[in-house]
Each structure stands twice: as structure tokens, then as C-alpha cells.
Amino acid sequence: MPQTADDMDAVAVRTWCSLALEALGREREAIDAINVYPVADGDTGTNLYLTVESATQAVEAVFAAHETGGTVPATADAVRAMAHGALIGARGNSGTILAQLLRGMAGVLADGHDADRLRRALAVAAAAARQAVAHPVEGTVLTVATAAAEAAARTEDGAGTTEVARAAYEGARTALEATPGQLAVLGRAGVVDAGGRGLVTVLGALVEAVCGQAPERRRTAVPILQVPDDCAEADAEGGPAFEVIYLLEATDDAVDRLRTRLDRLGDSLVVVGGDGLWNVHVHVDDAGGAVEAGVEAGRPYRIRITHFGADRVHPHAEPVQRAVVVLVPGDGLRDLCKEAGATTVLARPGEPPASGELVDAILRAHAREVVLLPNDAELRHTAAAAAEQARAQGVRVALIPTRAAVQGIAALAVHEPDRSFDEDVVAMTAAAGATRYAELAVAERQSWTMAGICQAGDVLGLIDGDVAVIGGDVPRTARDVLDRMLAAGGELVTLVLGEDVPDSLADALEEHVREGYLAVDTVVYRGGRQSAPLLIGVE
């Protein structure tokens, strides 16, 4: 239920995040469609949605931690969780700026949450966002954020939180309507700034959170305007080839040096964060150089590199009939699945993708029909939620409940886009279901398993999710696992080697299969960095 108290307490923060996520979900596609600046890649709405989804999940986690005691978290805890969640989940230029806006607000609201604090929070947020952008441009989300803060500051001293929030919303909406006259690329396209429109949506959710009633929505008609040629704009042709985003653990001084270096490498540079954790976003031709700069500054992780030409499809492009979206545990399998024509989502160890990221991948596939392969039992519910969201947007999605990457490989191998959707899904499901799966893992502590008590450092062989073998080394354990799996028969063994596993292990296992099991073939893939040193499939 919407918050009705005229206050920005923890419950209002939770409600704000939830309402903002819901509103961006409704408007995501429309915002994507008007995304022409700084790159016309049609993903601003999606990036904002994913950023707010991460913020919402962080706030919900704080509330969940208090549920057992029947308490409500402090406002400071809620706003800090919101800011942290947005920071670590920020996507794209617009999402990164929104994360800094939320961080700026949180820094003020953590110390109080009345109307005066909200005024100051909006002002601090707008200033922080400008400082985070290497070269601020008017007619963008920065202009809209500044207008919102200025409108809030003009409210009377006795105004309540509702009046301040409404003033900020109206100021932002008025500024948004003026953006085509400030930025040439917007005026020629006849659209308002996509990031600014997303911020107006977020501020509308803030109004609803504090007063219980959503502001009146009106359609903004934007004519194609004649604007001066000297207005700042992005060069749509010949811009940088890559978008690079990563989280970075580094000191303030190291980040200052990083900003200078990345500013020389590319454009659309936004660095947000603080207290040792930063989110870095830049458009460059030398993606490796941008990552290398991060390595020199500190510890970069969750690195995302997107090629504007190859991986992004404009929302008005002609859709294909069918696509397959696959979750993969390592870079090697990602390349393999891409070669097979699939759209991939990387699920690194300890970093499971959110449902919004899967929705993004489904829509990025730009197909009328999509087969979704989660390849992990723990991601089935996330995948199911993503499939439902995509169906609501008109995409026909079939979720095949693959529980391991080797099952996904088997399903992808029999994929035939020319046959009917139902027949294709049945064939892929049958192939996945006929594939037994196993993986090797190293025990972290002494514990009881289905195969007995293991000690820290033991090599565990898990078959179909349960520990079946406890061994002292990887080669011997792998052979024992293969023998158990092939005892029930099989025609094809698939081995997926982790990053640090030598090729000699694959050679030895291939020889073991060849000598002990006639007519059983073996294929080997390099999985790259993945959670298990070895994945095994038997069909």
C-alpha cells in the first residue's frame, strides 16, 4: 500500500523504490524508444529499470532482516541500502547518474527525513550528479535534476514533505519539456531526453510514496524543433565502439587519476560512488585500456563491455522469429553459445543475475519467440519471473528448466528455428532431460554429505546435484564420477574445463572413456572462469 504519512521515513523509502520500479517497468519500452543521446542504443529505460531494481532489492533485504524481530529499520539504514543497491547495480550512462542522485539524497536523508531535509537532499543530489559527469551537458537528466532541486528550494518554509516532493516533480517535468530546445539531437528527433523522462518517472513515484496519490500524468507532445547548430550533442556516427562499466574498489586519489586517464580515452565518462567503492562508466574505442586503467587504480570487478554495433539492437529493428537466451557460468561457454546464435547472460560465481537483467536479455534478443535456458536450479525462480515479465510485453517465452550448463548445451545443440515453436521446445526439453550432469567442487569445511563425511580440501563429485564421490584429487575423482554416470549407459560425454584446469586432464579423461566405454564420444570445451573446475554431462 502507498505510504500516506507526510514523511520520508524507512517505509516511505521502501514504498518509493517499489513504486519507481513498477512505474519504470510500465514506461521502460517508451523511454527506450526515445533514447537518442548520448548514444542511440535504445536502452535508457531498461538501464534505469535495472538500476532501481537493484536498489529495491537492497532495501527489501534490510526490511527482511528486521521481520523476525517485528521491527522496522531506521531511515538511515533504508536510504543507505537504496543508495548502495543502486550503485552496485547501475547500468548505462543514465543508470549511473541516477545512482549518484540517490546516493546524494541518501547522504542527507540518513540524518533526518523532514521536508527541509528533502529540499537539501535534492540539491545535494543534483550537485553530486554534475560532479560525477566529466563534461556535463544541458538538456539532459542533469538539467532535469537541477530544475527539480531548484523548484523544491522555492517552496515555503512551512511546506510539508508532500509539497516539496510535488514541487520537485513539477519542476522536473517542466524542465523535461524544454530539453529539445537545449540539445540539438533531441530537437531534430522530436523527443525529450530519455534519462530526464526516467527521472521524472522516479520523482512521480516519490510523490505517490509520501502522499499516497500519484501525480497526474500528461502526455508531452514535442515538435521537431529548429535549434542552433552550436548546441552540444553526441556524434551519432563514428562515436566510440564500446561501453565499459565496472565496479571499482579504490581510494579517492586513485579515482581522481582514473578520471583523468579515462577522459583522455573516451567520452560519456561518469564515475560515481565513494567510501572506497565506485561505479565507472565510459564509452571508448579501447575497451582493454579502460579496464587496464581500472586495474591500475584499484580492484575492478563485475566488468561489462558492450559493443554498440554488435550487441545492441535498436528498438525499431525488424524482429527475428525466434531466439534462445542462455545463462552461462563462464566466458568460454558464453563464446560457444554466441557462436551458436544464442543471446547470453553471464552468471558469475556469487553474482547471480537479477530478473531484470534476464528481461533485458530477452528483449535484446529482439525476437517474437524466445527459449530461456537458466542452466542452474537456483536460478529457476528468477528465470520464471523474467519470463513472465517478458510475456507481459508481448514476447512468447518458453522456459526450459535446465539445471546445469551441460544440459543447456545439449538443448542448444538440437535447436531448430525453422520448425514450429512447440516442436522446438519439446526437442530441446527432451535433449536437456536426457543429459545427466555432474560437477567437481572443493570442500571448504568438514561436513556430512550423501557420500559420507568430507574434510576441508576434499574434492567432491556431485552428480545431479548430490555429492556422490569424495576424493583426494581432481583426476581420480573425475574418473570415479564418469564411471558412475556411464554405468547407466551413454553416447556422448561433455567436459567443460575451468580456467585453471590443464588440458592434460581432458586428454586423460578422454582416454579413460575411449578405453572403458566403446562407442561413447567425448567433446571438450573451455569454460573459462567458472565456479567448478570441471563440469560433466552424459547424454
DSSP helix count?
A: 19
Mean pLDDT: 86
First-to-last CA distance: 50 Å
- Main beta sheet strand tally, sense and closure: 6 strands, mixed
Spatial arrangement of strands, main beta sheet: 13-12-9-16-14-15
CA radius of gyration:
25 Å
Structural class: alpha/beta
Helical content class: 40-55%
Low-confidence stretches: 1-5, 221-237, 310-317
Strand content: 15-25%
Report the principal-axis shape: elongated
Give the number of DSSP strands. Answer: 16
Descriptive key words:
alpha/beta; 539 residues; single chain; disordered N terminus
Describe this protein's structure.
The chain is built from 19 helices and 16 strands. By secondary structure, the protein is of the alpha/beta class. The strands form 4 sheets. The protein has a 6-stranded mixed beta sheet with strand order 13-12-9-16-14-15, with helices on both faces. A hairpin with a 2-residue loop joins strand 2 and strand 3 (about 275-285). The longest helix has 24 residues, at about 10-35. The protein starts with 9 loop residues before the first helix and ends with a strand.
